[in-house]
Design a protein that fits this description.
The complex is a heterodimer of chains A (about 170) and B (about 200).
Chain A lengths: L2 H23 L4 E3 L2 E9 L7 E10 L4 E7 L3 E12 L2 E6 L4 E3 L4 E4 L4 E8 L8 E8 L3 E10 L22
Parallel strand pairs in A: 2-11
Antiparallel strand pairs in A: 1-2, 2-3, 3-8, 3-9, 4-7, 4-10, 5-6, 5-9, 10-11
Chain B lengths: L2 H29 L18 E4 L4 E4 H4 L4 E6 L6 H16 L7 E6 L7 H9 L5 E5 L2 H10 L4 E5 L5 E6 L2 E4 L5 E5 L5 H15 L1
Parallel strand pairs in B: 3-4, 4-5
Antiparallel strand pairs in B: 1-2, 1-5, 3-8, 6-7, 8-9
Helix pairs in contact in B: 3-6
Classes of the chains: A mainly beta (about 170), B alpha+beta (about 200).
Chain lengths: ~170, ~200
């Protein structure tokens, strides 16, 4: 190979790794202890909104644990809430004792159910950005998670893929 | 008077009272039956209201909404899940209705007038669709509309002085004379929601 073509190949390989490097900055699987946290997303907030909700899936390959707290630089107060529509009435409550992550099971924080409640947000959440939060588990401890900001009123993560597997998280 | 006489009077009074009660219940059951098990007749949902349209800053009443069918959603801006998603759904319905969307009124009514000032409501709802009219008012005005439309709304304290509102999650559908005709449930399939809205519009023309 000529020097030039080696250089070109090196440059090509370098740029090829860029998408992977970018992906790692977006929401992807994170592990702490026996827990795997994946698919973390939130919604862009309308102007004047003071709260936002964060959602993710927590898979537990070990003994039962509890998600007990969350903090984030994006909100002055962060709590774990449960929301339910019961007989046509929306009710939302703080889970002051946290939520169980069953042994060998999964805990889903998703619309219409549990969510991380970002309260008194310091600025609107913008689509395409990432919001970080540190979640605290009773046994596994603290872990930082990156939440992808989807559009306002989104029903789920865009792309429907598993994050960290090359398809998820790339914004159009 | 003798004890026996007193006893007789009391016994007759009891019989008369019993007959009276039977007659009353019988009347209720057979002569004037109320809505077949409904707590209150459906016709009592809706009615006059006075609120501020936050997009214009002007007072609006139910009279301003007559002539076109309407969809009202009652919520609050502090709500992270149901309210933004329902507003996004409404935005989608409006887009799908195309020019027919102008044959209806859409409104987002705050059940939390203390925090949802006109300025907050205007900016929040404008992010979804300008055809959704943001309505808010004084606590008395909001209370009156909530009561008239039989909306469930309850303040629930959270830590630190914050609070959330439990509230009815459905979209209320009214005909052009502002009579209640049905709801679109939270998370109802979009096709069903669109069918209801089209029927509402068709019945009005």
């Amino acid at each position: 190979m000529t020097y030039f073509s080696k250089l070109a190949l090196a440059a090509l390989l370098a740029t090829a790794t860029l998408p992977v490097a970018t992906l790692s900055a977006l929401a992807q699987d994170v592990t702490v202890g026996a827990l795997t946290l994946s698919g973390a997303w939130t919604r862009a907030t309308p102007p004047q909104a003071r709260a936002g909700g964060g959602f993710l899936t927590i898979t537990n390959s070990g003994e039962a644990d509890r998600l007990v707290a969350a903090v984030s630089p994006v909100s002055n107060r962060t709590e774990i809430h449960e929301m339910a529509v019961v007989d046509g009435v929306m009710k939302m409550r703080e889970m002051a004792d946290g939520v169980e992550v069953p042994a060998g099971g999964t805990l889903e924080l998703k619309p219409g159910s549990y969510h991380v409640m970002f309260m008194d947000i310091v600025e609107p959440l913008k689509e395409g950005e990432t919001v970080t939060a540190t979640l605290t588990f009773e046994k596994a401890g603290d872990v930082e998670v990156a939440f992808t900001v989807e559009k306002m009123g989104a029903k789920g993560m865009s792309g429907h893929g598993m994050p960290g597997h090359g398809k998820q998280g790339i914004k159009e | 008077m003798s004890a026996l006489k007193i006893l007789r009077y009391v016994a007759w009074a009891a019989v008369i009272a019993l007959l009276g009660a039977m007659g009353y219940v019988g009347y209720q059951q057979y002569v004037a039956p109320e809505g077949e098990g409904l707590i209150s007749p459906v016709a009592s949902i809706g009615g006059p209201f006075t609120m501020t349209d936050a997009s214009t800053g002007k007072i609006v009443t139910d009279a301003d909404f007559r002539g076109k069918p309407a969809a009202y959603f009652f919520g609050f801006t502090f709500c992270p899940d149901v309210c933004p998603t329902t507003l996004a759904e409404t935005q989608m319905w409006i887009e799908q209705l195309g020019p027919d969307a102008d044959k209806m009124n859409f409104a987002f009514v705050s059940v939390d007038p203390e925090r949802d000032t006109p300025e907050v409501m205007r900016d929040y709802v404008a992010a979804f669709d300008k055809r959704i009219r943001p309505l808010t008012g004084t606590p008395e005005q909001a209370e009156q509309m909530i009561k008239a439309y039989r909306v469930y709304a309850r303040r629930v304290p959270l830590d630190d002085g914050d609070y959330t509102m439990d509230h009815s999650a459905a979209v209320f559908l009214m005909d052009k004379d502002n009579r209640f005709v049905g709801t679109i449930a939270y998370d109802e399939a979009p096709e069903n929601a669109m069918a209801k809205l089209r029927r509402l519009i068709d019945n009005a023309s």
